Amino acid sequence: MAASAKRRRGWRKRLGALARFTGALVIVGGLYSAFSPSLYAQEAESNAIDSEAVKGQELYDTSCISCHGDNGEGVEGRGPSLIGVGSAAVEFQVNTGRMPMAAQGAQAPSTEYPVFTEEEAEWLGAYIEYLGGGAGTPDDLDAMVEEADVAAGGELYRVNCSSCHGYAGGGGALSSGAHAPSLEGVSNEEIYQAMLTGPQNMPVFADNELTPEQKAELIAYAQYLVNDDKDPGGVFTLGRFGPATEGLAIFLVGMTALLLTTLWIAGKS
Amino acid sequence: MKRRKGTSDSLLTKAGGELDDRFKLAGPARVLFNKVFPDHWSFLLGEIALFSFILLLLSGTFLALFFEPSMVEVTYHGAYVPLQGVEMSQAYASALDLSFEVRGGLFMRQMHHWSTLLFMASILIHMLRIFFTGAFRAPRETNWMIGILLFWLGFFEGFFGYSLPDDGLSGTGLRIMEGMTVSIPFIGPWASAALFGGQFPGTSVISMLYIIHVFVFPLLLLALITVHIGLVFAQKHTQWPGPGRTEHNVVGFRMFPNYVMKQIGFMLFIWGVLGAMAGLFQINPIWLFGPYEVSVVSSASQPDFYVMYLDGLIRLFPAWELRIPPYFTLPPVFWPGIVGMGLSVVLPLLYPALERRFTKDRGHHNLLQRPRDNAGRTSLGVMVVVFWIIGVISGGNDVFAEKFDISLNAMTWAGRIGLVVLPIIAYYVTYRICLGLQQHDREVLAHGLETGILMRDPNGRFYEVHQPLAEPDEHGHTELEYNGWVVPKKMNRIGALPPADKGFFKSIEEPSEDGRTERRDEIESGKH
Questions:
Q1: Cis peptide bond prior to B189, omega within 30° of 0
Q2: What is the ipTM of this complex?
Q3: What is the pLDDT of residues A169-181, one digit of tens each?
Q4: In this structure, is residue B380 part of a structural domain?
Q5: Domain enclosing residue A175, as ranges
Q6: Cβ atoms within 10 A of the Cβ of B321, count?
Q7: Within 10 Å of residue A207's Cβ, how many Cβ atoms?
Q8: Which of B273, B297, B321 is the last residue of a domain?
Q9: What are the alphabetically sorted keywords of the record (chain A) (predicted)?
Q10: Distance of alpha carbon A94 from alpha carbon A120, whole angstroms
Q11: Considering only CB atoms, which chain B residues are within 8 Å of A154?
């Protein structure tokens, strides 16, 4: 029985090592969560898995797991870890049809037909929130946007957003095939979630950079820009691209009309 | 001839006589009215520039009544809600008021801007016409050089105007100009400090540019345009070669009434097009750009199209910085920005002299050349045009990349490679096309027109019947000299086949049916 005792001792030893390791992890993790500053708007309130998160996990395991990995840990070279990204990020990516991504590319393009319903996106969000907390969207956002100061939002927009999305919110090119999308037809929630979570190439504008009120001002200006500005200059806006399309127009419209006129006038003799 | 008293005719005569008695007008007026201009559509391109310039002066005067060229900071309380309460310069605030509160102000602003674009576009097109037809050759080199100077005056005049409203795009443009100025070795930083009154953007640049924009440059433009047109009068207009046209005459229409009427009609048409564009197409929506702040640069910030090729060259040029420690640094923007612009000024100015030197052609030319007849020059011109177009596209490469879903990096590299390779290919292709066209002209002169009628010999050989342009020799060949003008290439150009159709928009002659068979027989009798 010496061999079996030895085996048992080895087993016990390994169990002890595991216990010590787990204990060390708990201490380190506890210290970390006690002392690390909170970066995001909202921490996960409880770690108890609720029914929404269970439903979300089911969806996750069939549609997201191949790139984002088991339990949202990420897969090297395919998809990043989702631990800590929060429900705002999930709802933004899923509701705009960016995720699930059809194929790996320069960036996930938004599509008109999201794979999941908004309810399903909420479940997925709940699951990701359960995995590691993260940022969420305020419930009274539309009311905040309604009251926000558009002009103040304009100043914030020009400093923070126009360098990628353009002065008219039409979007713009980034390097290596990526692009900043147009803000046209984007809901208040989506703009808010995008600012909060920094999808794709977009930087994160956390609440310590732009407060929720400032975000609401920004959204109010962006919505004014793409929806309410009536383009007083004419029925043709030339896509609000500025001098590039204006130059095209003077040759295609003005110059062409006048060249035909020269042919006409010189032909009449 | 005795005239009854009191008719309008005699009144006019009397008034004319009285005026002539006092001001001695009859002599010069007779010369002017009888001045003959050759008639061709391509001779009307410079007029587009002239008439849009006149509209620029008129609309610019209107804008000057309301614009305040001041960089004093004010708080906006005007009509445009999303800027209310925002700090901005007096210049930008007055440009906003001009757009939203002055009656007709936005229309005039847009007309001023569209006229600028048309002015510059028509100068370019006019310049291409002069270049490709060899109209710049002696004795007209001076006028070519004045034309080039007019383009560059217009270039800077337009750029200064673009800078005046002090909106986001204006300031970004000025910032790039500052970067280019600073890049000039040794004097750059001093020149920039002189321009901006110290550090960019300073507090004085707008009011300085304003005086240059509304007084100095318009005066220079007006003076040079006067000399430009005066020289066309004095040296007489060039004409295409053709029947009755020589190096020593001008065939065309008298100034009065024919030419004056056409010109007035054309002027009104140009203003009509510009008015329509100003009302229909939104241009330079400064309220969207916001006031200029040094920290704000929007994506897709472009200059107007005539500056865009330089912007494109700057975007394409590799980041080659020359550094000689410890003090000297030559930033990469110096090469495309300063050297590139300098060459774009100097090479066109010198071109007539260079061509004289290389072709050793020192004669005077009043007859134009068809572009195909000088393949080298035409190919060189197309090469420059291709280079310029790649520059312009690269100046807007971020808009292209985004809208056509192309990687911006790919656009940049395509521009870099294209800038070197495509002009060479364009030169070769144009040269071959010119030679081909020349050869076809000679072929028609030697063998006659292709009639499209196929014949078959008794021994089975197919051949196309050709219509000789003169009495052929026993081999069916004609010895006609090419005289530098259009060789007819189709039967109805020599009146042999109906329909002989005339009219621009719709037919003013019905095709005649009679005599068709007879003429066909005539053609068929002509040997190949």
A1: no
A2: 0.90
A3: 888 999 888 889 9
A4: no
A5: 141-228
A6: 11
A7: 18
A8: B297
A9: Cell membrane, Electron transport, Heme, Iron, Membrane, Metal-binding, Repeat, Respiratory chain, Translocase, Transmembrane, Transmembrane helix, Transport
A10: 9
A11: 82-83, 86, 290
